[in-house]
């Protein structure tokens, strides 16, 4: 047991810490540290001294002394060193603040300044790091308890105030301003292609990033952000505004794009290597604004702009334009607008050209029309044989396809198949196609022509491509109901006149349309094919029936091949002559054709056979569409017997002459009276038989082109032909493309059917909704119908009006907006 | 916190299986053997071979000393002679064991596990190392004391191992401390430390030393040590408030840290609150009269003003 009470420990209990002595030790040591002589100092001793001072509640005094010491040190020793490096080239400025020295001089002087500032900053950092270690206890205890910034932060603020914010001399700029100017100057040199010491600038930027505007150290009030970065962005904007304007004047669009892209990359690199990464998005926005956003319109409209690039297939340069605009706006409005304009222009040209071709038709039409009967037979000179309208249609579709291909290609290669742009291009394509009033008809004609001739001798793949093309154009078409009408008409002709090259391909086409346009669209078309198949079965059935009935007893009996067509499915009016369609309206009003007995027997035989099979169905004979195979003997011909194929009417006429004496003649009127063939059809058939040179079985008096009242016809015994088989064509009824009148009629019918479709849609909607506002009803109706056609708003209004009259709907009186109610 | 050192008690199979025990074992070996040491701590005549990685990573002071360009960074010697030797020793002990003054009943590893095994295989120990020998007789004879305040911190779960008779014997912490080897193992140094220990009263409650360790931890910025020291003082105060050590400890508490550091001060005040008779001892009274801030605290307690 030794004494329990020990003497107080040194330095802890008593008030034996003399502040001034202790501070003296510390101050001397700090001086050593700042002059880089710390290696002889004992850290433990300094730490202990600082600790003791704080422990003795002299923390505040110590803190202030240190701050004061730093202030003095920076203000006298450090600043003067830096100011000394401000050499003449940096300070020589004219009135506008522009330096008068050469670039080289400025660069060297600037680097010297930057180096000394960087050195001072780094030294300060290191020294303050050491001081912070020594004064750790003060920071931990005094600064925390008294809410003072750490001595490190404090000294950084002192550096900012003493070094950067103090004017070099009275009335002169501060070092911060000079620093900003020098860095910007150097960056300008870099932009002009001279090499600069990027690392040196970066070090100074680090300094600015490490300093705050106030002692509060708010993150977004860094010295770098406020005075420096703002100035940098302002100056850059100015530079790029000028540069952009100059380039637009001096160079072409492609070069401009390349330059702009390079500038953006450069600025990115600069932020990484010279400035701060945090500036990247800001400077990028500046460059994009100045070089792209504000110049895009000018760039696109340049002489070497987008239109030029499209014209010359400059895909790469287009992609540059695209890349540039994609940077500033994901919707690419300017480029999209430009592309749409170009497409609209090109499309209008195509449309106008097609109209021009079709309108040049009347002059040249007569001659080819004459040749048309031979169209099926004569393969020579097809171009001449094709109707001018068909030429226009083919040309139009091909050109539209080329246009589409071209822009698809641009879109794919230059615009990386961008959704927005390709949508816009598609919309423009649709506009172009729908702006053309004959679009539906021409597409159908295009398919018609291909079905008849185009796909001949083509491989399956080629046929496929052709079909795909038609579907492509069709896809854009908005008036699909009109197209349906035309297609039905054309298909009908192809099927009945056996003009189609391949039923297989026809069916393929239908199934493609089915995919593209839906079931309801192809329903009637498919029904046509079904009728064809059924008819074949019927014909065979009848043949067997006949054979079984009288066992070859009458070998001279005419054979019958029949097509039974469902009346609503087939657009039979297509076959009625276009010139006087009104007169022939309705099958019932038509005059009864007088058949010779041999034919009448067959007809009646089939009617009996048919009514056995399907009782209660009425057959209406479409004589104008039938054809017949005859065996004809001409005494002076090379062949004893010719096989003649002709229309049913022609057959009736020829059979008539069978009954006449050899040299007897009959007038037009007589023939008409004895056959009851409608005058118009009769004329056309007589034209084929008496005027067309290759099938002149009859002699006409007087010999002329047209059939007129009172003309006489007689048997041409002198007929001679080297061909065994002769096909008698009929001057076709109407052209393949409709005449104006016919078109009007189609339109009218179309409008009627559209009216029904609209009424049906309105009733469907109202039945479901019971009550609906006017505007809403309109939009819903339009949405329901768009897959068929683009309904006209006025038409919808009229239909709604008519539905109200017929008491399907009524107006809701008390509704705030005009509304309708469904009346069940 | 005591689970680590207690695990290092049996350096055989358990060490192999438990990574924590393995680490503590290794740290203990580094502490005792000083292998790879790259820093020396001086305190008067004692010195410790320590590791910068272990010290600097947990204390701002040592980091500053070794990391800056001061003399210590170069010489690799830090002189803490101004501090209390014993407290420095405990601080260093803490660095390697995360605790101090909780005495392991079995000798600590002095060598790395793998080395111990391979060495044992290669050759028999050439010299008898007393620190490795458990002698229950000696323990019972020489160092029996009633439960020291250290015991509560040894975890109760050690029951299974306490079958070994030696583990039951609490040793005097000071004896154990003497055997943590100073860097120089020659007789002179040994004697020195031995003398130092003889000074200390054997029945002391360690109040004083905890207060000193606390102050040291505050000075050298080792928060976890500060926390442990506080806990230990609290425990010791609860058990040994009547220790003759108390007045000195109170003085230490009130002088070695700044006034705003309430950690130990609250413990002292609490002791006065629970045992008002404390103030009647003359020694304590004198301490109160010398420490105005303590007097103010006591006044506040008396008046029921929150301290």
Automatic annotation (TrEMBL), chain A:
Residues 361-382 are annotated as: Disordered. Keywords: Isopeptide bond, Ubl conjugation. One of its GO terms (biological process) is ubiquitin-dependent protein catabolic process. PROSITE patterns: CULLIN_2. Gene3D superfamilies: Cullin Repeats, Cullin, Chain C, Domain 2, Winged helix-like DNA-binding domain superfamily/Winged helix DNA-binding domain. GO terms for molecular function: ubiquitin protein ligase binding. Pfam families: Cullin (PF00888), Cullin_AB (PF26557), Cullin_Nedd8 (PF10557). Residues 438-690 form the Cullin family profile domain. Belongs to the cullin family. This is Cullin family profile domain-containing protein. It comes from Friedmanniomyces endolithicus.
Automatic annotation (TrEMBL), chain B:
Residues 146-200 are annotated as: Disordered. It holds the Pfam family BTB. CDD domains: BTB_POZ_ZBTB_KLHL-like. Residues 37-96 form the BTB domain. InterPro entries: BTB/POZ_dom, SKP1/BTB/POZ_sf. SMART domains: BTB. Residues 187-200 have a biased composition (Acidic residues). SUPFAM superfamilies: POZ domain. This is BTB domain-containing protein. The lineage of its organism: Eukaryota, Fungi, Dikarya, Ascomycota, Pezizomycotina.
């Amino acid at each position: 047991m030794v004494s329990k009470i020990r003497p107080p420990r040194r330095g802890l209990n008593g008030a034996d810490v003399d502040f001034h002595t202790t501070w003296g030790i510390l101050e001397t040591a700090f001086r050593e540290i700042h002059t880089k002589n710390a290696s002889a100092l004992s850290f433990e001793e300094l730490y202990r001294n600082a600790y003791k001072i704080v422990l003795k509640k002299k923390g505040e005094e110590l803190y202030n002394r240190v701050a004061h010491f730093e202030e003095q040190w920076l203000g006298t020793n450090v600043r003067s060193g830096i100011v000394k490096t401000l050499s003449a080239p940096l300070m020589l400025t004219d009135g506008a603040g522009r330096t008068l020295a050469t670039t080289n001089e400025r660069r060297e002087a600037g680097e010297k300044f930057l180096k000394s500032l960087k050195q001072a900053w780094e030294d300060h950092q290191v020294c303050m790091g050491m001081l912070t270690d020594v004064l750790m206890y003060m920071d931990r205890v005094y600064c925390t308890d008294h809410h003072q910034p750490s001595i490190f932060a404090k000294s950084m603020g002192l550096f900012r105030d003493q070094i950067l914010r103090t004017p070099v001399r009275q009335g002169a700029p501060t070092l911060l301003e000079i620093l900003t100017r020098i860095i910007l100057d150097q960056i300008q040199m870099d932009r002009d292609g001279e090499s600069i010491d990027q690392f040196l600038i970066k070090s100074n930027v680090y300094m600015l990033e490490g300093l705050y505007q106030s002692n509060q150290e708010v993150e977004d009030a860094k010295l770098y952000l406020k005075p420096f970065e703002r100035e940098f962005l302002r100056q850059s904007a100015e530079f790029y505004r000028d540069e952009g304007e100059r380039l637009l004047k001096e160079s072409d669009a492609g070069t401009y794009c390349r330059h702009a892209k390079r500038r953006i990359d450069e600025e990115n690199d600069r932020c990484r290597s010279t400035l701060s990464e945090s500036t990247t998005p800001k400077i990028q926005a500046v460059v994009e604004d100045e070089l792209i956003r504000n110049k895009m319109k000018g760039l696109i409209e340049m002489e070497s702009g987008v239109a030029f690039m499209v014209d010359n297939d400059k895909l790469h340069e287009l992609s540059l334009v695209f890349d540039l605009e994609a940077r500033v706006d994901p919707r690419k409005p300017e480029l999209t607008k430009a592309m749409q304009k170009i497409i609209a222009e090109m499309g209008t040209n195509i449309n106008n050209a097609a109209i021009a071709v079709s309108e040049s038709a009347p002059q040249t039409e007569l001659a080819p029309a004459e040749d048309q009967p031979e169209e099926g037979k004569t393969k020579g000179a097809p171009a001449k044989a094709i109707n001018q309208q068909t030429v226009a249609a083919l040309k139009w579709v091909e050109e539209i396809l080329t246009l589409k291909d071209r822009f698809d290609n641009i879109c794919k290669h230059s615009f990386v198949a961008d959704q927005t742009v390709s949508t816009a291009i598609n919309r423009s394509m649709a506009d172009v196609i729908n702006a053309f009033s004959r679009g539906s008809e021409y597409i159908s004609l295009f398919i018609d022509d291909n079905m008849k001739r185009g796909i001949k001798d083509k491989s399956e793949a080629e046929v496929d491509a052709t079909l795909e093309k038609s579907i492509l154009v069709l896809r854009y078409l908005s008036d699909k109901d009109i197209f349906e009408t035309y297609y039905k008409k054309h298909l009908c002709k192809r099927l009945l006149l056996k003009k189609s090259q391949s039923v297989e391909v026809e069916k393929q086409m239908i199934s493609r349309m089915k995919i593209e346009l839906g079931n309801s669209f192809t329903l009637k078309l498919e029904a046509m094919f079904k009728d064809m198949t059924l008819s074949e079965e019927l014909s065979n059935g009848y043949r067997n029936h006949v054979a079984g009935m009288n066992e070859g007893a009458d070998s001279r009996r005419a054979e019958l091949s029949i097509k039974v067509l469902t009346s609503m499915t087939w657009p039979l009016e297509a076959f009625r002559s276009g010139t006087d369609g009104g007169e022939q309206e309705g099958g019932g009003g038509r005059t009864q054709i007088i058949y010779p007995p041999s034919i009448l027997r067959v007809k009646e035989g089939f009617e009996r056979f048919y009514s056995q099979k399907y009782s209660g169905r009425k057959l209406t004979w479409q004589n104008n569409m039938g054809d017949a195979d005859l065996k004809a003997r001409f005494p002076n011909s090379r062949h004893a017997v010719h096989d003649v194929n002709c229309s049913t009417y022609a057959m009736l006429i020829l059979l008539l002459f069978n009954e006449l004496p050899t040299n007897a003649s009959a007038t037009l009127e007589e023939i008409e009276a004895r056959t009851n063939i409608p005058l118009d059809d009769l004329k056309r058939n007589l034209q084929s038989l008496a005027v067309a040179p290759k099938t002149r079985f009859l002699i006409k008096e007087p010999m002329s082109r047209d059939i007129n009242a009172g003309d006489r016809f007689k048997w041409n015994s002198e007929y001679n032909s080297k061909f065994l088989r002769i096909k008698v064509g009929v001057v076709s009824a109407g052209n393949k493309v409709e005449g104006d009148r016919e078109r009007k009629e189609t339109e009218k019918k179309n409008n009627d059917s559209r009216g029904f479709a609209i009424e049906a849609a309105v009733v469907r909607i109202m039945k479901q909704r019971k009550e609906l506002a006017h505007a809403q009803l309109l939009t819903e109706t339009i949405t329901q119908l768009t897959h068929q056609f683009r309904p006209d708003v006025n038409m919808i209004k009229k239909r709604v009006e008519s539905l109200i009259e017929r008491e399907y709907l009524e107006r809701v009186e008390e509704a705030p907006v005009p509304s309708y109610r469904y009346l069940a | 916190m005591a689970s680590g050192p207690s695990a290092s008690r049996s350096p055989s199979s358990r060490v192999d299986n438990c990574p924590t025990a393995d680490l503590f074992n290794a740290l203990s070996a580094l502490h005792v053997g000083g292998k790879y040491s790259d820093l020396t701590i001086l305190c008067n005549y004692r010195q410790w071979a320590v590791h910068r990685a272990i010290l600097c990573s947990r204390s701002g002071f040592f980091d500053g000393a070794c990391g800056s360009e001061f003399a210590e960074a170069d010489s690799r010697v830090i002189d803490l002679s101004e501090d209390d030797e014993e407290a420095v020793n405990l601080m260093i002990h803490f660095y390697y064991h995360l605790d101090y003054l909780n005495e392991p009943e079995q000798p600590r590893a002095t060598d790395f596990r793998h080395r111990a095994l391979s060495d044992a295989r290669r050759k028999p120990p050439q010299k008898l190392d007393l620190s490795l020998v458990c002698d229950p007789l000696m323990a019972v004879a020489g160092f029996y004391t009633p439960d020291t305040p250290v015991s509560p911190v040894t975890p109760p779960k050690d029951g299974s191992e306490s079958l070994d008779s030696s583990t039951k014997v609490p040793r005097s912490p000071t004896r154990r401390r003497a055997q943590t080897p100073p860097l120089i193992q020659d007789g002179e140094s040994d004697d020195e430390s031995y003398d130092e220990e003889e000074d200390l009263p054997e029945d002391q409650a360690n109040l004083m030393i905890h207060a000193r360790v606390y102050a040291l931890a505050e000075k050298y910025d080792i928060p976890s040590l500060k926390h442990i020291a506080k806990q230990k003082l609290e425990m010791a105060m609860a058990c040994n408030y009547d220790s003759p050590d108390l007045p000195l400890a109170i003085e230490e508490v009130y002088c070695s840290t700044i006034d705003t550091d309430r950690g130990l001060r609250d413990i002292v005040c609490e002791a006065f609150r629970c045992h008002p008779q404390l103030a009647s001892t003359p020694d304590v009274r004198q301490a109160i009269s010398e420490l105005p801030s303590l007097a103010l605290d006591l006044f506040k307690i008396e008046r029921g003003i929150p301290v």
